[in-house]
Design brief:
single chain; alpha+beta; four-stranded antiparallel sheet; 4 strands; binds zinc ion
Length: about 130
């Protein structure tokens, strides 16, 4: 995976742990300088923001089905840090996980809505300082 992802078409796949014994496929697609996230779980197939997408975006290793994808996840994290909109996406996913855990329902709904809209439209991946 190259660090420079602008103007490239890229697919990054992860196997995510779910409630069943078979993993779900979470796929990040970069197209026309926009990032989209897909998941083949029930919610994901309806284009909803599922916990698999949230956890992978947040960089949560415990969601990974295969330990050997940890490195890939770290790399994704580092790439996300370089692009302001992707960085924001990551902080929102982390904040959302915190809100779910602490049962801050109103915060949870607000962030969930933002993240869902962001991912539906695709997240821009322009680097700030070029
Ligand atoms: Zn899912």
């Amino acid at each position: 995976m190259a660090d420079k992802i602008e103007n490239q078409e890229i697919k990054i796949n992860f196997k995510a742990k779910g409630s069943k014994s078979t993993p779900y496929n979470v796929c990040f697609v970069i197209q026309n300088n926009r990032l989209f996230a897909n998941c083949d779980c029930k919610a994901g197939r309806f284009r909803q923001l599922c916990k698999h997408k949230i956890d992978i975006i947040a960089g949560d290793e415990s969601r990974l089905f295969n330990c050997d994808e940890k490195e890939k996840l770290n790399h994704l994290k580092n790439v996300f840090l370089k692009y302001p909109d992707l960085k924001r996406l990551t902080s929102r996913a982390i904040r959302l996980k915190g809100a779910i855990q602490q049962e801050e329902y109103i915060v949870e709904v607000a962030i969930r809505r933002k993240l869902t809209n962001q991912l539906k439209e695709g997240v821009t991946i322009y680097r700030k300082n070029i």
